[in-house]
Q: What sequence folds into this?
């Protein structure tokens, strides 16, 4: 298995980092540039920046946010939110993004993944898969879009498999049931996705304690561990997480 990477996430709204619970009740979590710089110094292997209101506001990701953050870091930056065309992606890459993350637009037009992978390479394309529990679909996890506001009746695990087939390089599954709760990653969802694909899977949504990170690798099959609240509020430090994983025999990235 590849070395595990730690990925703090900057959820962006109105130029600030925010954090909520179940995608709602957003609270301010600081300045994005200061946070990005801090996380690089802390030992983050990469960084995510998601413009969480872009799709709902029918606009593209704010390029100035990407430029400002990318200017203070040298680690890879994955950017998502409101990306609907390969041209949007190209602008983000020019602004300093290393990878882009697509979600709602890919669900509406799956060919976007094929086009992006052909043009930029699979390694630069992440597909975010947001889901909620619903026994009406085979896996028990239903795909949701538009910041978790719209369920689409599609099996989220099957969708992840299709994304890989179309050329995605990374799958980023987030459980609405766990987001922001600090009650632990949704291991059944993460494992269902990691069992369905062979590309790297990001554990996302709900990390609250050291054991959660270990479970995400051991039981969830994730190789990238994304977290926000525990890092933003300094509940845990990246060095603590890496040391904890190493003590349990998990190889972690040292950059």
A:
């Amino acid at each position: 298995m590849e070395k595990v990477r730690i990925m703090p996430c900057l959820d962006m709204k109105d130029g600030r980092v925010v954090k909520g619970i179940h995608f709602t009740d957003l609270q301010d979590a600081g300045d994005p540039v200061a946070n990005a710089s801090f996380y690089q110094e802390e030992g983050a292997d990469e960084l995510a920046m998601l413009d969480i209101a872009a799709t709902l506001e029918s606009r593209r990701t704010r390029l100035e946010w990407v430029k400002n953050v990318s200017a203070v870091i040298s680690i890879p930056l994955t950017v998502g939110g409101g990306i609907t065309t390969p041209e949007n992606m190209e602008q983000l890459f020019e602004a300093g993004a290393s990878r882009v993350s697509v979600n709602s637009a890919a669900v509406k037009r799956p060919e976007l993944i094929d086009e992006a992978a052909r043009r930029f390479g699979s390694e630069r394309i992440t597909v975010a898969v947001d889901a909620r529990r619903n026994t009406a679909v085979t896996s028990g996890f239903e795909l949701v879009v538009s910041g978790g506001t719209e369920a689409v009746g599609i099996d989220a695990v099957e969708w992840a498999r299709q994304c890989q087939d179309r050329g995605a390089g990374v799958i980023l599954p987030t459980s609405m049931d766990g987001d922001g709760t600090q009650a632990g990653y949704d291991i059944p969802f993460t494992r269902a996705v990691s069992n369905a694909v062979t590309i790297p899977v990001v554990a996302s949504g709900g990390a609250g304690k050291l054991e959660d990170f270990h479970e995400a690798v051991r039981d969830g099959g994730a190789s990238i561990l994304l977290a926000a609240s525990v890092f933003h509020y300094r509940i845990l430090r990246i060095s603590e997480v890496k040391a904890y994983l190493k003590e349990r025999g998990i190889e972690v990235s040292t950059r």
The radius of gyration is 16 Å.
